[in-house]
């Protein structure tokens, strides 16, 4: 079974089908044909339709936490709403993940396309709900408390606020993918931000162009490659080549969809880079140049899927006083679904990021000459790419058999070498 073909490409078709409606929204908003309130209704209605079309009856799994979070925001005090939102949303998401694990491993049922899209959209919804809850906690967003009776509260302006919150949680350009923007940024784009059709069209055209190139590269690389069979039957150095090629296919697919998601985002008028109050605001996931040229695992980690990395930093890393790095990666494994590959891959990733900080700090004084710096950069770049390939294959292919094959092949030498370098640098220090 081609995992990439099953999960990613049908999602791209749904995203492509949403482009005309995104362009229509951007056009109507740009020329003032769509007032502010109908804009929120348009975005929310589009999200509901896209959910029903792509997920079928499983769309209710998305609607329940979206509506429940609105109730939570209005009945829980702002001092603790972020912890309540995180706990309840992760309980709901974990229950869905456990249900899928039960169907996949115990009942031996194949996970359908609609279920895959649903769980992916639910993970993105978790990001938006917890981000909005943290904004409420930090008083960046104000909530009208329930006071003086439900009827008076509803007609006192809360109905409009509920519409805006639901529109943010379910707006269709970012329902199935796309950069994570805060509620303040979303509200700014819909109500205040000036529209620039040329910039939007330029970003969309550029995104489509590079996405097409990446898809062609993926088609060339994927010829005659069977993931499971190759990784299970390879020998010696051939395993390294197969691991790197497999990871490259995953990366190309991610790059393709990030570009497509950002293009849909821009088509609706949500620029991924704009100026407000003299400052440039940027939110995007795609920085292929940095990802493919960096020689530091820590830089790759911060750059890979920037939206999720920033969200994890804000939700977990900055809140934990002890073991923040390990707690962040452990939570990431939980958020991704707790498959064996997720647990193994993210815990290894945490250890290797920790090692990366110390190793580069230790070896920096050794780079005196130009030749030494070049050799150091080449060696660490190659080593970083192979370690990243090891992590991506373990996380994305998820099964215990694949993890076992990776650990018994030459592929395991690269993370082990990094850990030995860390131990050596600590002892010498």
From TrEMBL:
Tell me where it mainly resides: endoplasmic reticulum
Q: Does the keyword rRNA-binding apply?
A: no
Q: Which GO terms describe its biological process?
A: lipid modification
One GO CC term of this entry?
endoplasmic reticulum membrane
Task: Name the keywords, alphabetized.
Answer: Acyltransferase, Endoplasmic reticulum, Membrane, Transferase, Transmembrane, Transmembrane helix
Q: Where in the cell is it found?
A: Endoplasmic reticulum membrane
Q: Name one Pfam family in it.
A: MBOAT
InterPro entries in alphabetical order? LPLAT_7/PORCN-like, MBOAT_fam
Any stretches that span the bilayer, and where are they? 7-28, 40-71, 114-134, 154-176, 207-225, 237-256, 333-353, 374-395, 401-423
Single GO term (MF): serine O-acyltransferase activity
Q: Give yes or no: UniProt keyword Transmembrane helix.
A: yes
Q: How does it sit in the membrane?
A: Multi-pass membrane protein
Q: Which PANTHER family match?
A: GHRELIN O-ACYLTRANSFERASE, PORCUPINE
**What is the name of this protein?**
Ghrelin O-acyltransferase
Organism name:
Xenopus tropicalis
């Amino acid at each position: 079974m081609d995992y990439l073909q099953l999960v990613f490409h049908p999602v791209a078709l749904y995203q492509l089908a949403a482009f005309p409606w995104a362009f229509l929204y951007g056009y109507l908003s740009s020329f003032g044909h769509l007032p502010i309130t109908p804009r929120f209704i348009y975005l929310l209605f589009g999200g509901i339709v896209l959910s029903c079309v792509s997920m079928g009856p499983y769309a209710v799994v998305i609607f329940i936490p979206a509506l429940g979070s609105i109730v939570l925001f209005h009945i829980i005090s702002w001092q603790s709403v972020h912890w309540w939102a995180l706990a309840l949303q992760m309980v709901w998401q974990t229950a869905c993940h456990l249900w899928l694990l039960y169907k996949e491993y115990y009942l031996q049922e194949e996970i359908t396309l609609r279920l895959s899209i649903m769980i992916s959209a639910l993970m993105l919804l978790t990001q938006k709900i917890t981000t909005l809850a943290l904004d409420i906690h930090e008083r960046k967003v104000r909530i009208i408390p329930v006071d003086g009776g439900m009827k008076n509260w509803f007609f006192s302006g809360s109905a409009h606020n509920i519409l805006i919150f639901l529109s943010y949680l379910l707006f269709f350009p970012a329902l199935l993918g796309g950069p994570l923007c805060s509620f303040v940024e979303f509200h700014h784009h819909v109500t205040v931000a000036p529209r620039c059709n040329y910039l939007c069209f330029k970003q969309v055209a550029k995104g489509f162009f590079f996405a097409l190139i990446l898809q062609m590269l993926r088609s060339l690389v994927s010829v005659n490659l069977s993931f499971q069979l190759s990784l299970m039957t390879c020998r010696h150095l051939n395993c390294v080549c197969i691991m790197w090629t497999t990871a490259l296919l995953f990366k190309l697919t991610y790059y393709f969809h990030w570009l497509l998601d950002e293009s849909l985002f821009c088509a609706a008028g949500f620029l991924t880079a704009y100026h407000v109050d003299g400052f440039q605001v940027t939110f995007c996931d795609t920085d292929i140049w940095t990802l493919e040229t960096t020689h530091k695992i820590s830089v790759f980690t911060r750059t890979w899927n920037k939206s999720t990395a920033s969200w994890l930093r804000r939700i977990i890393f900055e809140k934990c006083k002890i073991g923040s790095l390990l707690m962040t990666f452990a939570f990431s494994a939980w958020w991704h679904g707790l498959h064996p590959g997720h647990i193994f891959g993210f815990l290894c990733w945490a250890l290797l990021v920790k090692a990366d900080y110390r190793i580069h700090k230790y070896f920096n004084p050794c780079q005196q000459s130009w030749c030494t710096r070049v050799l150091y950069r080449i060696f660490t770049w190659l080593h970083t790419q192979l370690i990243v390939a090891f992590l991506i294959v373990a996380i994305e292919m998820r099964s215990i058999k694949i993890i076992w094959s990776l650990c018994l092949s030459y592929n395991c030498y690269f993370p082990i070498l990094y850990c030995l370098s860390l131990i050596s640098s600590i002892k010498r220090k």
